[in-house]
Amino acid sequence: ILTNVTCILLFISLAFIQYRASLRANFSARIVLWLTIVQSGLVIGFFLVRRFSSANTWNPWHILIAYLGFFSPLFIRAENHPHFRLMGLTLQFAGTFLTFYGSLSLGRSWGILPANRGIRTQGMYRYVRHPIYASYQISTLGILISNPSLYNLEVVCLFTLSQIMRLNIEEKILSADPVYLEYTSKVKWKILPFVY
Asked: What global pTM score does this model have?
């Protein structure tokens, strides 16, 4: 219950900050900020109805990495640089759609902290083992392209690094399950087919 309350309060606080920033931004920057809030809100919804885990981690370092990997995109600042806005918005829409589809594929096995909440092999999980992480990367790249700045690049780098670390922690937990080991023999790629 404490984890749920903490996540909801943190999400509401960061969403409010993004909302306030959107009031000062131009129309297309406002769309980018709202998509970030919507994507995170969808994920929080899935988080609240998640299945309890059979194996997880309570290592404070792992918890910090997981929260950074989830919440850091909400720290991105709106910038008024219209040059690549359409390309960025396209990537962000695609990433948000893929996050939603990946979350539907994952169902109630969703969570922020790395854990085993059941092995999923259907939907997007037929192609890569961590499609939601891939979807986040697409969305976040779109946000960065739409809002280029050194600060936002630093946030995206922190996000990417924490997501890779989070993914590796999750892989270690899931590898204790023979069903997951069988799944990894069929689905070789973690987030991007033929690359990683």
From this structure: 0.80
